[in-house]
Amino acid sequence: MRIKIFLTSSCHYCNKAKEYLKKRGADFIDCNVRDNPDAAKEMVEKTGQYGAPVIVIDGNWDEAIIGFDKEAIEKALNKNS
To answer: If you ran DSSP here, which 8-state letter would residue 61 be given?
Structure first.
């Protein structure tokens, strides 16, 4: 399972999402959209979202998780495990 989290380092909900993924033992790649314009462009083009966090599992942008949504994260992790 490949997990990407699009975030900013100063975002409270981004940090909560990262901590939750760590607690669940999930490996993920964090893409800081403030420091990486290509990641920001990809996130906006694929989701229409300008806010973070956005979590994408296995490249499935149609089921991207917008914001820190524990239930959606849990459901996605269980579905893809």
So the answer is: G
Q: What is the pLDDT of residue 81?
A: 63
Q: How far apart are CA 34 and CA 38, in angstroms?
A: 10
Report the C-alpha gap between 10 and 80 in whole angstroms: 29
Is residue 53 left, alpha or beta, with left meaning phi > 0 and alpha meaning psi from -120 to 50?
beta
Give the fold, CATH level 3, of 3-79.
Answer: Glutaredoxin (3.40.30)
CA 12 – CA 57 distance, rounded (Å): 21
- pLDDT tens digits along 37-67: 999 999 999 999 999 999 999 999 999 999 9
